[in-house]
Amino acid sequence: MTTIDFSPLFRSMIGFDRMAPSLENAFRNEAGGYPPYNVEVEDENKYRITMAVAGFAEGDLNLETKENLLTVTGSRQQDDDEESRRYLYRGIATRSFERRFQLADYVKVVDARLENGLLHIDLVREVPEAMKPRKIEIRGDNGRYIEGTDTQEETRAAA
User: What is the pLDDT of residues 68-85, one digit of tens each?
Assistant: First the structure.
């Protein structure tokens, strides 16, 4: 296995200390598996996870979010009728599963629905107003703003 050194990135990136373990986990975990899924980007702040869960009903599936981790589990009880069946080939897997998705900060699940054997999970990134970019004014030596409106200069001069 190849090891990747992320230390050069952390020289100029502050507060991303959880990123290295997340990336290492992504490299360790194999892609694929059961059940198959897609991750779609609908726009800058909207995402959709679609999982193929043929044979599962709404009651067989469970979604849970905790600390930026979305866990989707499915467990189906076998019927007595199913135990008595004999298969020549069984390609539709209905075994129990657990899938985990690491969510970025401020990403939350807004909807989940089951349609035609596909579980659609809609996610939205909602950045709080306080976290959005804002312009910082720079004052000169005389206390007046170098860039700003007349209203800001009048307010500072009056104070």
Answer: 899 999 998 776 667 788
